[in-house]
From TrEMBL, chain A:
<keyword id="KW-1133">Transmembrane helix</keyword>
<feature type="transmembrane region" description="Helical">
    <location>
        <begin position="332"/>
        <end position="356"/>
    </location>
</feature>
<feature type="compositionally biased region" description="Polar residues">
    <location>
        <begin position="374"/>
        <end position="384"/>
    </location>
</feature>
<keyword id="KW-1003">Cell membrane</keyword>
<feature type="transmembrane region" description="Helical">
    <location>
        <begin position="297"/>
        <end position="320"/>
    </location>
</feature>
<dbReference type="InterPro" id="IPR017778">
    <property type="entry name" value="ABC_transptr_urea_perm_UrtC"/>
</dbReference>
<keyword id="KW-0472">Membrane</keyword>
<dbReference type="Pfam" id="PF02653">
    <property type="entry name" value="BPD_transp_2"/>
</dbReference>
<dbReference type="InterPro" id="IPR043428">
    <property type="entry name" value="LivM-like"/>
</dbReference>
TrEMBL record, chain B:
<dbReference type="Pfam" id="PF00005">
    <property type="entry name" value="ABC_tran"/>
</dbReference>
<dbReference type="InterPro" id="IPR017781">
    <property type="entry name" value="ABC_transptr_urea_ATP-bd_UrtD"/>
</dbReference>
<dbReference type="GO" id="GO:0005886">
    <property type="term" value="C:plasma membrane"/>
</dbReference>
<dbReference type="GO" id="GO:0005524">
    <property type="term" value="F:ATP binding"/>
</dbReference>
<keyword id="KW-0813">Transport</keyword>
<dbReference type="InterPro" id="IPR027417">
    <property type="entry name" value="P-loop_NTPase"/>
</dbReference>
<feature type="domain" description="ABC transporter">
    <location>
        <begin position="13"/>
        <end position="253"/>
    </location>
</feature>
<dbReference type="InterPro" id="IPR051120">
    <property type="entry name" value="ABC_AA/LPS_Transport"/>
</dbReference>
<keyword id="KW-0547">Nucleotide-binding</keyword>
Amino acid sequence: MISGRFLRLTGTSGLILLACLLAAAIYVPVANQFIDPGSPFHVNTASVVVFGKYLCFAMLALSIDLVWGYCGILSLGHGAFFALGGYAMGMHLMREIGPRGVYGNPILPDFMVFLNWESLPWFWYGFDMFWFAMVMVVLVPGLLAFVFGFLAFRSRVTGVYLSIITQAMAFALMLAFFRNEMGFGGNNGLTDFKDVLGFDLQADSTRIGLYLLSIAALAVMFLICRAIVLSRLGKVLIAVRDAESRTRFIGYRVEHYKLFVFTVSAMMAGVAGALYVPQVGIINPGEFAPANSIEAVIWVAVGGRGTLVGAVIGGIGVNLAKSYFTGALPEIWLFALGGLFVVVTLFMPKGILGLISHWRRRQPPPEPAAETGAPSSTAAEERA
Amino acid sequence: MNTLHKELTRTVLYLDGISVSFDGFKALNDLSFVVEPGEMRAIIGPNGAGKTTMMDVITGKTRPDVGSALFAGQHDLTKLDEADIAQLGIGRKFQRPTVFESHTVRDNIVLSLAGKRSVFDTLFARAREEEADRIDRVLDTIRLADRAGMMAADLSHGQKQWLEIGMLLAQDPSLLLVDEPVAGMTDAETVQTATLLKEIARDHSVVVVEHDMSFVQDLGVMVTVLHEGSVLAEGSLDHVSADERVIDVYLGR
């Protein structure tokens, strides 16, 4: 009974994804700790961190897929929500350094001492408490998305215009965070973190812990997204994507639905950013760069828009390819990324996942009789 | 005054002196007309006569410059938005069939069912028994019961038109606005659609905008002729087609 219900929640491809995540959660720590470093099966700690990073990117991709794939809101500013979550985490990690900074000030982070600030700005209050920082990780991106979405959706800004203003939002935040007077470390951002909740951030065990936490967060987010898109609300979202005015004329207040999903998605992006920062050890205004948000949209497009599983595949896959290419053929990477997007748009409108289900359909069905009367191929693809 | 008020509340739709202009172009010019409960009314008129703008005003998409629009004698339609008006009980079918293509036929109806429409209601909504019955009844009415599991994208043009009408029915509105329901339909589908609309008109008020004269003839209802944003003539089809002015502007000699 329970397992049947669970399978309905995850879907077949989702179950495979969760199984892969579980396998990765078991294999990577074991291979890191217990397999001899000389063996090809060994995973070094640097790679654990890199995988952890990709998991955060996959969460960002998932959050974009929820708004873009299911509600048709093409946000080109989701990197900003990711960065805000990251900053909230970074602020906590800064406070946790305490007197161990270069200047030894027990309250003020190094950059504030360097700028000759006398006291902590009000918006840094409370970040010394872990729980407060965690609340802010979801609250700040959520609130920004709520206010931004309230204004944009109420004025019925849609399509490319909405994409442009989300992009402008990310750009404006980047410029603001670059300023020293803002109180977020300016150009350099926040870095030199020492530990989180008392665990040394450089220790293997902490890094593995963060990696495992990222896997768990990704799995939970995936299930939340699935629950949303399978609910009747999810059906309304797809309805809005396909025929917004029809949805309005049968009595749904479309802007409320968009606002809900946009805010939830921004909160998810914030959590992804918060898990990202302790693993990479720095957060700076460059994370707000519009190009980052666009790249994240490409991951979703490559993996398969509106499939959730595809977003995760895209987020991890494209970044794996990126680290391979930037290592092996550094000059080529940007061309490869651009080319990838062109190829996907032209030949794989439904991304990798769409391609897979297309291939599976093209194989002769085991019992031809069962196929008669089936609607055209597009229907089955939509369902897959 | 009192008698006028009583008169008003007995109407389903009451438009009085409505004018709308876009950049100086008068789309509606002092338009007035009334739909009684249970009535089916056909609206005809040449392109640009203001038929679609009139529907936009009734459904809250366009605000009139002047004039009043009352629903059931008490709701001021000029002050409400699309979602409010839809929930009050006015359903609208677009000219081009607009259905939710990546949902099944059944889900299209489910989403349209009258009921709570807020974000949290839908997030935690469960399918209910009585819903299933109503869905089946609607599917029977629009003759798509055997295609309930099909993706709406895979329906023929005519079937999409019916599905959209079914979505209106599921909303359970007291007034249906139907814009060119038979555009692009085969002759057989046109005849079936006329039957379907007559069936629906038994317990709903219906306003149909249509170009197809033989279809209007099939419906056999009172006709309002619009021209340059106001009512040119009103009456049975035979009556208005005998009207000199109607012949001049619309039917042609």
